[in-house]
Amino acid sequence: MTLWIPLAISRLLSTSIDTQILAIWSATVTIQNFYQYRHVDKPGWKLGWTWANNEVIWSMSGAFATQQGNCSSFKFQIPHCCKRNPEIVDLMPDALPENRSENCCRGGLLYAYSINPSNSFSSFEITVGNLENNSSGNPPLNLTLMAPGYGYTCGPVLDVDPSVCPVIGGRREEQALRTWKSACTYSSFLANKTPLCCASLSTFYNRLVTPCPQCSCGCREAKPTSALCYSCMSSV
Q: Considering Cα of 3, then 126, then 92, then 162, what sign does the dihedral take?
């Protein structure tokens, strides 16, 4: 199973800020935990990426960037985040109404899909500007996810069919202009660079554990006087 991250651009528009006309796009970003039994626990998820060019985050609701970065080149209105590699975290459940968005603010916690589907996802809204010559936007690069800690590897951000979202209590559907999606998978080997134990396999008719010159699973080093791999966990 995977953890999906779709980013759906809902509108492209131009806005005027003190006589300066800027092209921006707004999008809803959703993190959906499709793992059957793996929760995202405290301190919650942290999502990061690298912008393709010099994009900035003008505003956000439902989440926030942990650092603003250097916004000294903007004179009239200061963006929410000017870092080329922003890191985004969720708001807490008691966030103020003006900072919230729909399906947001779970404190970064996501239940496993098979246990609590309605709390297995979280969304936030983002407005991005400084698009230069590409008003439709470029997908972000090098997506990273800590949920929490290491262990997740995210694939490339790909163009997929535009998302369709119900509005007016489900009586109407609105289609996004463009949708990108990435899938992140979890590996215990990435999460634990040096496991505390390892096992050496042997054929069932062999009475002894097959000796090996060194631990092949990355566990702590065996005792110099020992020739068997299982000795590396004898002190655990």
A: negative
